[in-house]
Amino acid sequence: MCRFIETIQVRDGELQNLTHHNRRMNETRRAVFGVSEQLDIREYTGNCPVDGIHKCRVIYDKEICEVAFSLYAMRPVHSLRLVYSDTVDYHYKSTDRKELEALHSLRGNQDDVLIVRNSLLTDTSIANVALEKEGVWYTPTTPLLKGTKRAWLLEQGVLTECNIPADEIYSYSHITLFNAMIDFGSLVLDINRDTVIHI
Q1: 3-class DSSP state for residue 168?
Q2: What integer is the mean pLDDT of 33-42?
Q3: pLDDT digit string (tens) for 87-100?
Q4: pLDDT at 141 over 70
Q5: pLDDT in tens, 104-136
Q6: Per the structure, how many domains does the chain have?
Q7: Structural domain of 161
Q8: Residue from 88, 150, 147 nearest 114 by CA
Q9: pLDDT tier, 42 (very low <50, low <70, confident <90, very high otherwise)
């Protein structure tokens, strides 16, 4: 049976953005398994670690199967390579990451990949992205995964959705990577031909 995952930031003992994590988990359970009962992750986590930033990893199918905590350290990313796949599918956050891992293996000397599907930018192998132009941050309309941090940032008006063709990437000045664990603006790259490799 396929299993799915929510990765939640725990900051000083508090689960962050839990509303969006619960929503995505329950929408996935309904779509994949036909389960309408709503679960609340908070009821399964017990006492969260209280000092610093931790990762809470929740594995589920119809029910929540496993909850684990680990200390978090952000993996540095200084460069990206554009890779192409019109068939990659990760619209549910599954524990099966074989397609993403295969694309990540194409990164060459770069730290991660920026995945292009149907000529449009989507995500890196681990994060949603936003690109800056003239002070406005734009995020791809059709990411591989609609992340929980992305949903919150859109609600707050921080991001604007738009289609970003891969061949227009150099018209933007910066790219930021973000997900549940990587705060928006904490991992930002200048966009140039040394940091973002377009082949």
Answers
A1: helix
A2: 97
A3: 999 999 999 999 99
A4: yes
A5: 999 999 999 999 999 999 999 999 999 999 999
A6: 2
A7: 80-197
A8: 88
A9: very high
CA distances from 2 to 5, 90, 94, 107 (A): 10, 13, 7, 28
Say yes or no: 54 and 84 in one domain.
no
Asked whether the beta carbons of 166 and 119 are under 8 A apart, the reply is yes
Mean pLDDT across 75-104: 96
CA dist 28 and 94 (Å) reads 10
Sheet of 120-124: strand order equals 120-124, 112-117, 80-84, 196-197
Do 134 and 97 share a structural domain? yes
In a shared domain, residues 113 and 184: yes
Closest CA to 125 of 143, 149, 139: 143
Domain boundary among 18, 41, 71: 71
**How far from the centroid of its chain's Cα atoms is residue 183's Cα?**
11
Q: Dig out the tokens for 178 from the structure.
A: 């973000």
Domain match, 127 and 175 both: yes
Residue 138's identity, in one-letter code, is Y
Residues 28 and 67 in one domain: yes
